[in-house]
Design brief:
binds guanosine-5'-diphosphate-beta-L-fucopyranose, about 40% helix
Length: about 325
């Protein structure tokens, strides 16, 4: 057990969807939160990161900072995705070792696994096949992050762990159409089509591919659980344990929003990986399980979205 109470905990990336959910979840842990905005600390600058960590001396670190995006952003900005993410991980993980951080959790992504990995995907599928080309550069950066944690554990005995979530959605998501993942992208398009009386909304790709989604608040709870209860070299999958097709997801979103128009499919847009369902038996065996069914999470996300002022929604 790693107790968080009384500890100084740095959530790197606290303004993002996952980081802000971790901050909300940590409010009940009696720890002292350390947060620094991007405008004050560029995590891609090694000297600045080391200096900031020397000054603030966190006991524990959640590495939720990353350059992220959906299939379009990943396929069109590969240099930013590999450069930013490698730099962020390298700087934080190395500085955590130098500054004697007691526990660090690195956050990856289910796209680290091979495109055609057997489903559901177990942790040992890592590096067993070719990656999905639309997110290869991001995946390689995230694989490097896992290996950094393992290397610092082997050589220096650092208690650095890694968690691999399925596709995340929820509160404080990014709704920019060029950047977003499928849920915020479609939710916003369907909502705007409803308001403007547009008769149809185009879904990218065939709609036949399958994805597993985890609600931001469930993920944050699982990450805090791992921080407190898990120590090991093996990265740990974390998801909802269920997947659906993009067509089924679009139908659910139409229902949640209350849109009366039609859904069409734009097959000129990429599908990406055919299926990405994580095997979450390892984390379940540790005693954690997801709480929020997809439909309930989408309703909560839509309520949150419609209650925000326009300026408060990222990417809108
Ligand atoms: O969410 P998404 O971009 O993530 O796309 P990936 C999932 C599927 O939804 C793809 C389709 O088949 C998309 O073509 N889709 C349909 C849409 N309509 C839309 C839309 O309006 N916006 C978006 N974005 N997709 C990302 C990776 O892949 O998943 C990252 O690129 C990361 O590396 C992330 O791992 C979790 O699952 O395809």
């Amino acid at each position: 057990m790693f107790e968080l109470a009384g500890k100084k905990v740095w959530v790197a990336g606290h303004s993002g969807m996952v980081g802000s959910a971790v901050v909300r979840r940590l409010e009940s842990e009696s720890c002292k939160l350390l947060l620094v905005p991007h405008s004050e600390l560029d995590l891609r600058r090694q000297d600045k990161v080391e200096q900031w960590m020397q000054e603030h001396r966190p006991d524990a670190v959640f590495v939720a900072a990353a350059t992220v995006g959906g299939i379009h952003a990943n396929s069109t900005r590969p240099a930013e995705f590999i450069y930013d993410n490698l730099s962020i991980e390298l700087n934080i993980i190395h500085a955590a070792h130098v500054c004697g951080v007691k526990k660090l959790l690195f956050l990856g992504s289910s796209c680290i696994y091979p495109k055609f990995a057997p489903q559901p995907i177990t942790e040992d599928a890592l590096l067993s096949g070719t990656l999905e080309p639309t997110n290869e550069f991001y995946a390689i950066a995230k694989i490097a992050g896992i290996k950094l944690c393992a290397a610092y554990r082997w050589q220096y005995g650092c208690d650095f762990i890694s968690a691999m979530p399925s596709n995340v959605y929820g509160i404080n998501d990014n709704f920019n159409q060029q950047m977003s993942h499928v849920i915020p992208g479609l939710l916003r398009r369907i909502h705007e089509a409803k308001l403007q009386g547009v008769p149809s909304v185009a879904v990218w790709g065939s709609g036949a591919v399958r994805r597993e989604f985890i609600f931001s608040e469930d993920l944050a709870d699982g990450l805090v659980y791992l921080m407190k209860c898990y120590s090991g070299e093996q990265h740990v999958n974390i998801g909802s344990g269920e997947d659906i097709t993009i067509r089924q997801l679009a139908d659910m979103l139409v229902d949640v929003v209350g849109y009366k128009g039609e859904i069409t499919f734009d097959t000129s847009k990429p599908d990406g990986t055919p299926r990405k369902l994580l095997d979450i038996s390892a984390i379940k065996a540790m005693g954690w399980h997801p709480e929020t069914p997809l439909r309930k999470g989408l309703e909560e996300m839509y309520r949150w979205f419609t209650n925000q002022s326009a300026g408060a929604i990222r990417g809108a």
